[in-house]
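Weekly structure sync - notes
Attendees: PM, LS, DV (DV joined late)
Agenda: review two folding runs queued last week.

Item 1: First target. Sequence and structure tokens pasted below for the record.
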Amino acid sequence: MRNKRLHGQPAPRVRDNPGSPRRRLPAIVHRPLKVRPLKFIHAADLHVDSPMRGLDFYEGAPVDRLRGATRRALIALVDLALAERVDLVILAGDIFDDDWVDFHTGLFFREQLVRLRRHGVRVFIKKGNHDAASVVTKQLPAVEGVHVFSSRTAETVVLPELGVAVHGRSFPERAMPDDLVPDYPAPVPGMFNLGVLHTSLTGSPEHDPYAPTSVAALCAKGYDYWALGHIHLREVVREAQPRIVFPGNLQGRHARETGPKGCELVRVDDGVVSAEFVALDAVRWHHLAVPLDGLATLDELARAVLTAVRGAVEGVLDRLHAMRLTLQGRSALAELEAAQPGVLDAAVRAAMQEVSEADVWVEKVKLDLRSPIDRRGAADRGDAVGEVVRLTEWLAADPARLSDWVAQQLKELSSQLGAELAADDPARLGAEELQALLSDAEATVLAQLMDAGAGR
């Protein structure tokens, strides 16, 4: 196997429990290197003590556990490093989430570095946009054996005993519009060359364009592995020659950062690189769509929700699961919700009280339900029901028209609304959110019309 160059390797498997047996990937062959076996961890975007704003608005939210999740994830990373007896830990930027509120954040992080150094693990840190030299102003004594890359120039640290050369440069300022790769040093012959870079690469809609570069530029540098940071979604950009990886952030911080979060565990043996992703998150965020087509009772709703949630957490019971649930489909439950707003949210949360095998918190319940009425027949009616359905169809067909109509209604009703609502701009909402609001409004009006006898 090692004498062949492999292409199209499958993505590394996820290991959720650092204590479980490791599932290794097929080897990926690099150019031969005469070095001793090397094992390292590549992580990025720790955002230690990220504030997780807005949690106080969630009644019953496990606030302390959510806000402490970034710390617990870092402790898990150090535990993994010690259990695996790695040689290096590479942290590719955004260790912190801007300047510390106080020194407790820095002291906690330093304590974890000391744990690593007591066991002989070398640590390399590149500062990214959130912890650039100009951003984190507080200082603590350095930890011997922990190398923070210079922000003035790219540099190389050679470890002859490990046969590895580590290259990197920290951000001097938050904004870094230039490609840093051309200034990185040339590879050291006979060594495993590992580049550390915080970058948006060719761009991402979710992240600011910092230190942009290209895959071609990374390949041309001649390194064996590029440890990237900045993008919070894990991505193996290139499998080999060189291997280029965004590990994603260590801990999801809100409902938009879903799925397993963790680090890359990499082994290099005779030029052969094997890697696996290890999930270390203390809190895992989920978006779950729950189909309710044809369901009509709250008991049926509870069973559907329990099935979806239990399926999502199966086999991963050692962490808190934060759920955003979207109830979808055509169901008589839409009419029940219109008549008793909030009843479906309450029913979902009641169902979660039955989950004893996992730790689950419902962050939000969203509704994307439609009434099971015959819309075509209703639209042909000459009464108020038909008028409501026709108006809804007309608005739903054009997102711009819907946004303009909502703005006009707010303006016309300004005297009856509070100042804050009257001045609200529907453009701040996405098309999907406006469509959901329109659907909810239609269901509410139709339920009232039916109760008043207009539907008979």
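Item 2: Second target, run right after the first with the same settings.
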Amino acid sequence: MASHTLLPALIQQMMQPEFYPHPVKEPIELIQTHVSYVLLTGDYAYKLKKPVNFGFLNYSTLELRQHFCQEELRLNQRGAGEIYLEVLPITQEEQYHLGGVGKPVEYVLKMRQFPQEALFLSMFERGELDEARMEELGRVVAQYHAQTATNDYIRKFGEVEQVRQSIDENYDQTVKYIGGPQTRSQFEETKKYTDNFFAQRQQLFSDRIANDWIRECHGDLHLRNICLWHDKILLFDCIEFNEPFRFVDVMFDIAYAVMELEMLQRPNLGNAYLNTYIEQTGDWEGLQVLPLYLSRQSYVRAKVNSFLLDDPGVPETVKQEAAKTAAAYYKLAWEYTKPRQGKLILMSGLSGSGKSTVARQLARNTKAVHIRSDAVRKHLAGIPLLERGGDEVYTTEMTQKTYARLLDLGLMLATQGYTVILDAKYDRISLRHEAIASAQAQQLPLQIIHCTAPIEVLRDRLSSRTGDIADATIDLLETQQAAFEPFTTEEHLVKEVNTTQEIESQLMLE
């Protein structure tokens, strides 16, 4: 209790049950960060901003604190409206009063309190975060981004000068850790990569702006800011205090959790999240900028841990752990910048043969980009993924467009170091040979995986298929069988996979 006497009088009073107009769970718990106080009362949490100014964050006046409380409420309504309730004034006569009628002396954000066990990070630590949940998160974040604002002002934050500002600042702030948790070669090579990226990929940044991928995003979308509460995924605690941290490329948001899961040695979970998100949005081009943001997010984690080494109030044992953590993040940031050998994998087989199941499993194991022709076709047609396509979506012309787009995306991403799985029937020799010739021209390795199963199994699978984006039905099977052109002697890259048997051992790819 002695430490409470060092707290401001308002916080001391807020730790008393009688301050609140509702029952509380005693003792009231106080959580402090360098910028806020959070009081946990049982059903509700109350958050106050400290009167601080760190440059990138300024809560130094009552007006600013009121403004940013309102902004925090407004912005978090988008992803967690069930948690963020209202901003209340605090007034003072002799005592402080919550929501009194006098002149406000402070403002507080009232939220519903949820258990820490609901956090995605806590779920991960308990072994409860699986691929299905991460796929669901991909759909939730895609919907979230679709509803976020963009305009000419927001789009300006996607310009190279703006994007590189915080990245260059990270390097300036971490030079002194070279020889400590950071090595000189890692520092120089990571910086050289980002310098070259900004110099050589100007058109990519212009395209991201032109296609409205710079939006009012979350800005801090890691596993501690995502929870599962009342069976609903909520995205909370977004950045309200700094526009450049929030007006970013959607890939900036996605990169946080993908990077985190890589560091936690579960890249398959990040892959489930990433592939689902991109399939929902159709933003496969965004993968071109993803390595930059993966490196950036990892570098920021390294920097924050490095800062602890300079704090005289931090115990030596904590500093040693922070140095180890920082070193691991610096190394990961550097690894994201390394060139990789890209590869194309073509799936082939009739509807119901298990192509997507095999492709999904392969993607999770190899961190591959999984592009389904059904998704490409529906994005081209401008219809929702789960909406059934009419005859106009399945014309010969539309099929040609779909396969052309599929191959274009595959080549674009594979030449930039991704393993890309093109998931389609690939039932025609001409389609397969075009992909083989294009891969050879770009000196890309290519593999064909042909999925098979007995015809009665295909019928059973198609008749029981629900909630999937594929539209194929049983009555198409005979036509598909008749149209399938056998593999030629030139197609020596074919691996047969019988999907009625265990898949993993059949997927041992060169």
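Discussion on item 2: The chain has three domains: 2-113, 120-335, 343-507.
Action: LS to circulate a short write-up before next sync.
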